[in-house]
Amino acid sequence: ATSIAVFGSSQVMAYEAGDIMVKAGVIHVAPKDDSGFGDVKVKSDTQIGLTGTYMVTPQVGIELLAATPFKHSIEVNGDRLGTTKHLPPTVSAQYYPMDPSSAIQPYVGAGLNMTFFFDEAGAVKGSAAGPLSDSFGLSVSAGINYDIDDKFLANVGVWYIDIDTELDGADETVEIDPIVVMAGVGYKF
Length: 189
Fold this sequence. Notes:
Layout: H1 2-10, E1 20-30, E2 40-42, E3 45-57, E4 60-67, E5 70-76, E6 79-87, E7 90-95, E8 104-122, E9 135-147, E10 152-161, E11 164-166, E12 173-175, E13 179-188
Antiparallel strand pairs: 1-3, 1-13, 2-5, 3-4, 4-7, 5-6, 6-8, 7-8, 8-9, 9-10, 10-13, 11-12
């Protein structure tokens, strides 16, 4: 009877106000194929991602998404124009609809993104307008946490982020608008 009680108590994983979850994993940024500016293509990149979530209530959290810098090749009509790096920190409010004690915790979120472009090379760096313009936009997200025990969890998350910038001094906007996917593990404090 004792072993059953111990096993049962280790399975209590309720999300509570004040909990902090830190998740790390592999994150992939896949810009949309149609940039909205001729045949400009921004290539995908994969890096290390990190999220931190503060639970305001058992079902509402505030998340910060961060990553190591992404590096993208920029092509026009199939020719490489140059490269750029960017950091896309994103803050989101998340809603967890399941009972806070459930081991499976799907969530949806909406938030704001600020993308910083830097280290441009090739024709992108030599642009008449100088560096690519930073971007401020909206994001939406969805994901699922699977609580392995009361501290460790596995996670998969997906974001759509509105990232727009200007290229080569053009007055037209390049719409990068990537789908971002992260798979990782986390720890709950």
